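Model the whole thing, not chain by chain.
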Amino acid sequence: MAIVETRALTKRFDTDTPAVDNLDLATREGEYLVLLGPSGSGKTTLLRLIAGLEQPTSGEIFIGGRPVAGLPPRARSIAMVFQSYALYPHKSVFDNIVFPLKAQGMSPDDRKAKAEWAAKLLGIEPLLKRKPRQLSGGERQRVALARALVREPSVFLLDEPLSNLDAKLRAAARDDLKTFQQEVGVTTIYVTHDQVEAMGLGDRIAVLHEGRLRQLGTPQEVYRDPADTFVATFVGSPPMNLIERDDMIVGFRPESLIPGPVSPDHGITITLRVHRTEYLGSERRLIGYLEGAAAETRVIVAAHASRPIPTPSEEIQEFSVRSEDLRFFDRKTGERIQAETVPARL
Amino acid sequence: MTKSVRAVAQAGGRWRHLLERERFLAPFLLLPSVAYIFALVAIPFGLAIAYSLSDATVGDPSFDFVGLENFRQVLDDPVFVRSLRNSIFVTVVTIVCVVVLAKILALVLVENFRGKWLVRFLILLPWTTPVSLAAIAWLWMLDTLFSPIDWVLRRLDLIDGSLNWLATPNLAMSAVIAVQTWRIVPLAAVIIMAGIMAIPQDIRDAATVDGAGFWRTLFEVTIPLTLPVTAVATFFGAIVVFADMGVVYVLTRGGPIDATQVLPTWAFFRGIQGGDLGQGAAIALFALPVLAAMAIVILRQVRRMEVQ
């Protein structure tokens, strides 16, 4: 168990824009930290820097309080699970799992005991003699985890380990991953571009964009109080509605819209021209355009399927958002601000 | 005017429909190579079998069936036995050298360094050189009087006078093996290099994270994963070396005293220069089972590895 910390970490490849840009980030002890961002946001590069597979251009990395600059991956007390699982295709499951132990010079008896312990923990004992190609996606993931586990690392680094699984398996594997981490209690850094995964798994989420840390917080904080318009639209599906008004941007979540007007003391009233509605089983959505706005502004309303919302097309409808559900952003920088005057209508 | 345009379009359409029909297209595309193989492989092969069973000579090419007489005579000939042994020896030693050198070369070539493309180009050059030209160049390199290799060795005070490369049995054999290796290594290196580059980056990264150093990664990851490709490179190399007569013919003519005689040169000396077409064909046919056995062993090996 260890804390991973980066200070002013920068990584430049050949391009002008840095892949990781002056990044300060620290995990907590035994924490499940998710790095969330779109592709190209630098999340995988950050993970590889921590692993020691890439060398930083500048800045420092500490693992368990120890600077690890110049240390090879094996000396960093980390274990990594790759997106493709990167199992050695010519080795049996058992040989895959003991490979890191062999590299450490552990005796064959100890290796065997260790591998059996890890296999039992992950429920893959019957598979030990098989080759990776004879395994399903979920089984491969467990083998990759077992291989990471036997070294008893102080940090787990997971690079999109669920993205190669089909949707059904992914949900089950996500549960397994969380349970597994809670059992082992090792600090885990988990990279994903899937915000549902991030919300479900992370103790905290670090949202990255263009190599910079946009926000670090619990799933609730990131969802309820996004630090800027990027986080507001990247986290949450459908994303937060953003409406430009004078020199600021007003934001509110689709599910915070309530049919009908409200008094200016308690919130703001929004007039929408209904475009269409969607029924999604557990949820209903209404897509409309802001009535009377200069530019066409799309607004999405989400409501529990049991709650009726107006359906006719092209009809003008009034909705309201309570004051506590409103968020304000600077129109130029996109950063979160406190609004002095709140408009009564939009 | 419009009518003729339509007619052309229709004719084009009919032609296109014909090409889209698999029953027509497949034979159509295969025809040139089938004709080529038939004319240049099947007919000579059939002729070789026919000649080996006849008493045809250059002076009297008329066909008289003599059964296995040619094979009996060939097997009784000590030079033939020596040629067969030499052929196998040269092929095996060359391939061992090729696998080791090509692997090292491939590992160097996959690294990133300045002027990489130039080095790759230079390394491929020996492979693009025709066998006879390469062998003649080596003939000069190994000349009794003017050999630059001897000159260097003399300067280093390692030898007095000259080594007489091609007139000393063991040295002549080493020279043949060296030239064959020099000739085969580039292609093998490029094939193995492709195999190394096909190993996913994730697997290499995983080995690094798992704490495997250079040697462990080499022997436990890189070599096992490039084994099928290496086997293919070996297979091609072995066949090229075993069937080659150019190098031995130019360098030593099989000498001194048949010390470097191999099957293809012996078949040539017997059948063409000696005029005994029947025996020449019989000698050449002895290469067939050896090559076939080699092909089967290696192909099975590759298949076994693929199944795993």
